[in-house]
Write a structure and sequence with these properties.
The structure holds 2 protein chains of 2 kinds. By secondary structure, chain A is mostly helical. Chain A has a domain of 97 residues: Orthogonal Bundle (Rna Polymerase Sigma Factor, Chain: A), CATH 1.10.1740. Chain A contains 9 helices and no strands. Chain A is elongated, with a radius of gyration of 18 Å. Chain B folds into 4 domains: 75 residues, no CATH class; 37 residues, no CATH class; 248 residues, Gamma-adaptin ear (GAE) domain (Immunoglobulin-like, Sandwich); 183 residues, von Willebrand factor, type A domain (Rossmann fold). In chain B, the strands form 4 sheets. Chain B has a 6-stranded mixed β-sheet, with helices on both faces. Chain B has a 5-stranded antiparallel β-sheet with strand order 3-14-16-6-5. In chain B, strand 10, helix 14 and strand 11 form a beta-alpha-beta unit. The two termini of chain B are 40 Å apart. In chain B, 50% of the residues are buried. Classes of the chains: A mainly alpha, B alpha+beta. The interface between A and B is large, with 64 and 56 residues.
């Protein structure tokens, strides 16, 4: 029934207390939210937890939604902030070597099995600093413009573009190093 | 060659799994449940994401309180206090039960069985109103009194906001904390800038905020770290000034722990401690923030306990009044002699948090009350206790500071006590206290209240020197470069030193101020700047002096400042425990700020240095600092 209602209208209705709008909205956006969480964390388990945190906080956060940006942009900003909080807590509590760092460990195991493609991905991700990884996670789907990714990350559009070229540069460097060794 | 970014994107897309169906259904259902519950109550449910600090802070605070109180030395003196505290905290902790089950649920269990048992008999309190408006406060905080250059010292802090303003109006519970800080002082070339000028700072708020952060399990944001406030938190054994002098400088020069090529110059000022028996009567106006955000256990309840501690230090001749501000300002207790303890305590106990913050009206009423209480020869002070939300009804932050400045000239001092975290507006607190000739302290635990309001009460309340400015002129013949550690928010222009119209920091009775310079001797391999090819040669300077120290201060109430001068000899002395400890704390602070000047020197070195310099530590502050460093090291690694 609400299939064609835009996200933004649903979000405003939900912000005013419409429970069915909230359900429809979350149902619709859950998968892309989870995908983003995975790309931000690099671990399935982490992504599940992060998604849960965000879902549970959404009812309260949504009261602050003002439709000044697309709902997904807003939602991804919430996700990025939650991921940062989570990372910060992790880093300070135990510096758990999970997420993309774990992948680096997994990679060494994978070398034996020859899972080359996955191997390259995790090496590359593990070597990128967190801010570049986050930028990548938000720009990977064509759905978001650089401007929107910038809003979600709290940086300017120019910075997004700069970071992407930085990623490209680093990937080339990595490729060269690998070629050299 | 293909674009490696495209390859990475493709690989990442391929690697992204589908969400687990069970978790998905569960998360959707729980979110829905929360949503519907939130509609049923006046309070928006607060999310649990990202807010571990307050709950954690409360429990750490309580733990810290008991640890401190059960320390053998303190035990005898505070047995009665412990009983009092437990008793008092019972009704206050009820607030924890109040409105939203989500965030509150975990807390009461931490408090212990006594409370749990008692709670069942306690009447259920009226729900505390929800924290005010969502988007509005955070936006208003952004425009909070950003200090401006025109305002002399108070003004030189830059408001550092954790997140830039953005168009999304994210979530009410995002931190709205702001901290006053500047970029760390750079290394100066003596030939270019031989003179360094700053205002003294006896605040300690930054150290307490750092401690609160670390105890809650996360490193403080770098902008919350003001190194000089960390150093000044600790008492040092400086010699007392001669009779008649307000303060006395003490100089020491040692090898810099983190750089063998430089030296650390310590300038210590010891304020005179007038005979306590002769102190003038005090008029205290407590201006207490009772806005809704103060309802947390580490805010209003801790504040009430803290003021109870302080009451014991007052004399029957002193007078106390309480003004609250929340929505509308009100006089909760008319001026009352401190001897009438029960009246004052009853008024304190009756304070409850609710409503939004009308800081300006409250401040005006507090000053009016203070003016009414003032008599010749008495000291009047407004003590503002807040969590920092000072925004509603505050149309023009500059006007507020102008107002405080006017009141300062009338002789009423203003001190600021910060409580709680989350919307702590450290920047505003600093600006208000500096403008109001007062100190800013941050109270995170009852033991900090003991330090600020009991052990060091005289210093906090009785000024002995106003507008104290320090100017150090380095000798280019002996010093190639220097760097002032900390005091970024207290920097003064060189010409302001002799200008008595420019405001600066105050020193209270018995206060100590310590400043550290890292100086690079001429010819040292640690010199960072190459000499100029076309530069002028260093002018010949007298003798082998390292530097020349000038101090200016006004006696309280005086308009004209007195000048003290002292030549600093270029001789390294074997550092005493005090200097070493100050150096360790300076190193700790710089590590927390992420300073570039420490080389490979890290927290391990700071811990070793501090451990060797505990010296005489009657209050246990230094040991506590070492354990903080150890915690910070664990958090960092």
């Amino acid at each position: 029934m609400r299939m064609n209602t835009p996200d933004e209208d649903l979000a405003i209705a939900a912000a005013r207390g419409d429970a069915t709008a909230f359900a429809a909205l979350l149902e619709r956006r859950y998968d892309s939210l989870f995908a983003l969480c995975f790309r931000l964390t690099g671990s399935r388990a982490e992504a599940e937890d992060l998604t849960q945190d965000i879902c549970l906080s959404l009812p309260a956060k949504l009261t602050g939604y003002r439709a000044t940006a697309r709902f997904t942009t807003w939602l991804y900003r919430v996700a990025v902030n939650a991921a940062h909080d989570r990372r910060r807590r992790h880093a300070t509590h135990a510096r758990a070597a999970d997420g993309w760092g774990d992948w680096e460990l997994g990679r060494r195991a994978d070398i034996a099995t020859g899972a080359h493609h996955r191997d390259w991905l995790c090496t590359a991700m593990a070597r990128l600093p967190a801010d570049l990884r986050d930028t990548l996670a938000l720009t990977i789907d064509d759905e978001m413009t650089h401007g929107e990714a910038g809003i979600a990350l709290g940086i300017s559009e120019g910075t997004v573009s700069w970071r992407l070229s930085e990623i490209r540069k680093r990937l080339r460097d990595m490729a060269q190093q690998e070629g050299a060794t | 060659m293909t674009d490696p970014l495209d390859d990475l994107n493709a690989a990442l897309r391929a690697a992204t799994p589908r969400p687990g169906a069970a978790r998905r259904a569960q998360n959707l259902a729980r979110a829905q449940e929360i949503f519907e519950r939130a509609q049923g109550t006046a309070d928006a449910a607060r999310p649990i994401v990202g807010r571990p600090s307050r709950r954690a802070a409360f429990t750490t605070g309580a733990r810290q309180m008991f640890i401190t109180l059960t320390r053998p030395a303190a035990l005898a003196a505070t047995t009665a206090l412990v009983a009092g505290v437990i008793f008092v905290s019972l009704p206050d902790t009820r607030a924890l039960l109040a409105p939203d089950p989500l965030t509150r649920a975990a807390a009461p269990a931490e408090i212990g069985e006594t409370v749990a048992a008692d709670r069942e008999q306690a009447p259920r309190p009226a729900p505390v109103p929800a924290a005010p408006a969502f988007a509005a406060p955070s936006v208003a905080t952004l425009s909070a009194p950003a200090p401006t250059v025109s305002d002399g010292v108070a003004a030189q802090g830059r408001v550092v906001k954790a997140a830039p303003p953005d168009p999304l109006f994210l979530a009410p519970e995002d931190d709205t904390e702001t901290f006053a800080n500047e970029n760390p002082n750079p290394v100066r070339v003596t030939v270019d800038t031989p003179v360094s000028t700053f205002s003294v700072d006896v605040d300690t708020a930054s150290y307490a905020i750092i401690r609160q952060s670390i105890m809650a399990g996360f490193l403080p944001p770098p902008e919350a770290v003001r190194v000089e406030e960390m150093i000044n938190y600790f008492p040092y054994a400086y010699p007392a000034p001669d009779a008649g002098a307000a303060f006395r400088p003490t100089i020491a020069l040692m090898q810099t722990p983190w750089n063998p090529g430089t030296r650390l110059l310590r300038i210590g000022l010891q304020g005179a401690l007038p005979a306590l028996a002769d102190r003038p009567p005090l008029n205290l106006v407590f201006l207490i923030d009772t806005s809704g955000s103060m309802s947390d256990a580490n805010k209003l309840p801790l504040l009430i306990q803290s003021f109870r501690l302080m009451l014991g230090q007052l004399r029957p001749t002193d007078e106390v009044a309480i003004v609250t501000y929340a929505g509308s300002a009100g006089l909760a207790l008319p001026p009352t002699p401190a001897g009438e303890r029960s009246t004052i305590l009853a008024a304190l106990e009756n304070l409850s948090a609710g409503g939004s913050t009308a800081g300006e009206a409250g401040l005006q009423q507090a000053y009016a009350t203070a003016a009414q209480m003032a008599a010749t020869g008495e000291v009047s002070r407004v003590i503002l206790a807040t969590d920092g939300d000072f925004n509603i009804g505050l149309s023009d932050p500059e006007a507020l500071k102008t107002y405080i400045r006017g009141q300062r000239d009338s002789g009423t001092y203003l001190s600021v006590l910060g409580f709680g975290r989350g919307n702590l507006d450290d920047a505003t607190m600093q600006a208000l206290a500096q403008t109001g000739n007062g100190t800013a302290a941050y109270i995170d635990t009852l033991s900090e209240a003991q330090k600020v309001l009991v052990d060091q009460l005289t210093g906090a309340l009785f000024p002995i020197a106003n507008d104290v400015k320090v100017q150090v002129e380095f000798n280019p013949a002996t010093v190639a470069e220097y760097r002032l550690i900390g005091y970024e928010t207290r920097a003064l222009r060189r010409e302001d030193f002799n200008n008595d119209a420019v405001d600066a920091g105050e020193i209270g009775a018995g206060h100590q101020v310590t400043a550290l310079y890292e100086v690079t001797p001429v010819g040292s391999p640690a010199t960072l700047n190459d000499p100029l090819r076309y530069g002028t040669a260093a002018p010949g300077a007298p003798g082998e002096e390292l530097a020349f120290l000038r101090l200016r201060a006004k006696a309280p109430g005086a308009e004209i400042s007195d000048l003290t001068e002292l030549a600093i000899a270029n001789t390294i002395t074997a550092p005493d425990a005090d200097t070493q400890f100050a150096a360790a704390i300076a190193g700790f602070g710089q590590v927390l700020r992420g300073s570039d000047y420490l080389g490979g020197w890290a927290l391990d070195n700071a811990i070793a240095l501090a451990n060797g310099a505990i010296g005489d530590d009657p209050f246990g502050y230094r040991r506590e600092a070492v354990s903080l460093m150890r915690l910070a090291r664990s958090l960092k690694n």
